[in-house]
Amino acid sequence: MKEINIAQTLINKRREKGITQDDLAVYIGVSKASVSKWETEQSYPDITFLPQLAAYFNISIDELMSYSPQMTSEDIKRLYFRLAEDFGKKPFDEVYKECQTIIKKYYSCFPLLSQMVVLLINHHMLAPEKKTQEEIIGEIIDLCLRIKTQSGDARLSKQANDIQAICFLMQNKPSEAVELLDDKDFPSISSDGSILANAYMLMGNSDRAKEVLQTGMYEKLLSIMNTAPMLISINADKPEKADEIIKKMFAVADVFQIEKLHFNTMLLLCLSAGQSCAMRGETDRALEYLSRYADICCKVTYPIKLHGDDFFDNIDGWFEKFDLGPLAPREEKIIKESMLQGLTENPAFAVLRESPKYKRIGEKLKQNAGGNTNE
User: Fold this and answer.
1) Are 296 and 189 in contact (CB under 8 A)?
2) pLDDT value of residue 373
3) Domains of the chain
4) At what angle do helices 239-255 and 206-234 cross, to 10 degrees?
5) How much is the pLDDT for 67?
6) Is 264 exposed, middle or buried (CB count within 10 Å of its CB: 0-12, 13-18, 19+)?
7) Which of the chain's termini has less CB crowding within 10 Å, N or C?
8) Contacts of 330 (CB under 8 A, 6+ apart)
């Protein structure tokens, strides 16, 4: 952390420039004694001299004062853990007062303010008086609001929003927490679903709490599953790693019955697993995955509609809030044709084209694409 230290800066810059205290005094229009006092920290230059001194040494005023309104990430990390340790060893009021001083000094360093918010919410309960604890919660809310409105950093703003909501719950203001976290215009649970669910529980709305938790889990589950194909692909040069990913993703898919819950996610996993095996010359395994791919394609019922299941039994209403509702954004014929293309137009499967099993899989998908869609 940088502190104001104009004395050392003057000494260093004057020596770099090769001038004496007399030379600097003449340029600024003060006595040599004044320059000497500045360099020995007996006094500071008048504020009107700062621009002149900075210009003379070709530096900024902040650099002249050895002051930075920002802190590095390493400085912030060290400061956080030092203060956290102090809270466990020193009187609360002493450490809290230092925190307030640091916050005021670096009021525009939003990464620091963000960590100070975390520090205070994790230690406010150590305050000996309930009133002080409540006051600190109020200060945290104010800091969160500043971070959200002034930082311009989406990540810091989201964290501040979540912490502000937690503070509202501590103040027994669940409706304010809901107002922060529940975006009525967009159905995705973008913040911590457990905070929002807790707020609804405090409001006595357990049905909405269940929906929030299930939709959050559903989104995270599909996010994990939908990243798997690329993860398999980028590990093409590491067969053991690719197989580990395939094994674990199919295990997750089977446990949550992804094939029934969100068939397209399962199709992409089957294709990526088949492609990985085909590229390694493991044709039998590749054909097994492609056979499963074709079976899923042929089991799809139309019209396609997003839905829950016995586990995700509180999310159907959530799908209705989507701009297009729960229905698929493409027509049935186009969907079936794209399923066929997923097999026939993938160059990785060229090595399989002479295989009788591959041909049967392809024929099955062709029939599915051109058959009676009402069967």
Assistant:
1) no
2) 39
3) 6-64 (1.10.260.40), 73-204 (1.25.40), 227-370 (no CATH)
4) 160
5) 63
6) middle
7) C
8) 338
Q: Which structure tokens are listed for 63?
A: 């650099």
Q: Name which of 66, 60, 59 is nearest 1 in CA terms.
A: 66
The pLDDT assigned to 183 comes to: 73
> Could you tell me if 292 and 270 are in contact, meaning their C-beta atoms sit under 8 angstroms apart?
yes
Assigned token pair, 157 = 């703003």
Whole-angstrom Cα distance, residue 106 to residue 102? 6
> For the chain, what is the total number of helices (H) and then of strands (E)?
20, 0
CA angle, 144 as apex, 143 and 145 as ends, to 5°?
90
Q: Any bridge partners for residue 78, and if so which?
A: none
pLDDT tens digit sequence for 243-291: 999 999 999 999 999 999 999 999 999 999 999 999 999 999 999 999 9
pLDDT in tens, 291-317: 999 999 999 999 999 999 999 999 999
Token pair 């956080």: residue:
80
pLDDT, position 185: 52
| DSSP code at position 348 | G
pLDDT at 374 (0 to 100): 39
Q: Which tokens in the block code for residue 271? A: 């294709």
Where does 280-351 have alpha helices with state H?
283-299, 316-320, 332-344
Rounded-to-integer distance, Cα 238 and Cα 38, Å: 64
Residue written as tokens 């020995």?
40
Q: Which of 2, 1, 147 is nearest to 60 (CA)?
A: 2
Q: Three-class SS of residue 90?
A: coil
Long-range own/partner contacts, residues 26-30 (CB < 8 A, 24 or more apart): 27/56, 28/52, 28/53, 28/56
First to last CA, the chain: 72
**Which parts of the chain have pLDDT scores under 70?**
1-4, 67-69, 184-192, 371-375
User: Rounded to two decimals, what is the model's pTM?
Assistant: 0.75
Contact 202, 172 (CB under 8 A): yes
Give the whole-angstrom CA distance, residue 224 versus residue 306.
18
